[in-house]
Amino acid sequence: MSNEDDEIDVKSKLSNIILIIFLLLALGWINYLYFSKHISSNPERINNFIAIDNNINKFRIPVSAVFFYPYGKGGRKILASQTNPRIFVVPYAGYLYSETNVAKAYNWLRPWKEKIKNVILVAQNPDAEFSGIILSQTNTKTEKLTISNTLNELLQQNTSSHITHKNINKMLPIAAQLSQIKKIFGNGIDFTALVYSSDKKTEATQMLLPFVQDKQSLLIFSADMSGYYTELENKQSSENIELVINLAQQAHLYPKVFDLVNFEDIAEQNYRLSELKNEQPLSTLEQEYESLNSFAQLYGVELLKIAKVSLDEAVVNHKHFKPERENFDDVLFNRGAVFVSLYQDGKLRGRSGSLLPTQAVAFSVSQNAYAAALEDKNYTPISKEELSKVKIKLALLTGYEHIGYKNEKDLLNKLQVGKDGLVIRDGNRQGVFLPSEWRNYANPQEFLNNLKIKAGMSPAYWSNKIKVYRFKAVEITRDEH
Question: Is the pTM of this model over 0.85?
């Protein structure tokens, strides 16, 4: 073989090596672009968000406090903002007990402190050997809370059991709550404390039932949910809550979780108290909606900040803004589906969104803010002059629930007006309306007709092959006041 052939062979091998290196680099770059958003996002979804203390999230799903409210006429729930609670369940112990979180729960009672006249602090006796009911001794002061003789006499009227009177202010379930009760109500209430043994739940229920039905009274249940995980201790904790459930059932009360912080769960890691006959278990969409609502309350301001920075970068510099982990809470890098809507003078000016939680909610907000400002084909790109007038609204989306139907009329009857977001799909045609779109239409038929138009269908068109999915959305807007 000649030197010339050797040179050609070397050049050929070198070219092949360069080509292979180039292909490997190109493939690596493509893989990076494709997977970066997934790798840089946490695997968790904000749809399953629980407001939980990071120091105890490796143990159990906690609950800080639960309030019970009465039903109104026709069995409809009375809004928590319209009536005071009748029962308040709050911890005195937990795996990581925090007075700060308990105080936060007590603060929920402040708006009602002038309307609540009687406060009865209830606890189960931690002494397994004890049997009976104890009322706090009269004519004594407990953390400057005067024990009410009248309240004690009223309680005794409703039981045939023997009642013991003694000073129980040093008993942990009682002592842990006294300072908070004093802080909220001062001396403006009649107060007493009641301690019962597990075999006296029925008698205690009869004693307390008249007060649960009285809108001027509040029962505070001091519960030990420390979660030591032994069968006996967990049984004792749940027995304490059985009395609450019995009272709630008889008085037709419904529960509302105050906060998921620092308190052991009671019912299958999700304190919904589904044992209540009049409380239907939440659907998957409703549970996700509650999770998203908690997420929005805690991190809505941060998401709006990301959207605003992204909007400014897009309009002013025509650049994409990518949030970095060191600048934001890690939970914002959990995956979430979000729509970003831009308004000017009350009218929609641009919108972009993601239907599925494929990447971090922080990234989704940033990218959709850019797209809403510059890439929405229904509107001209937003100019620098308009930027100061643009208002941002975010919508966090739950998952989807397929709606089965017999015909179009049947579908319309199944829609929840004002609540359902809707996706319709027929072949390669698809349309999406957020729940906020209900504000623009008078009835379900008009809502559906316009959604069909958006999907590229005639408003008169119908086929039972159309796939329909509902979802819910939590809106986040900046408070201009």
Answer: no
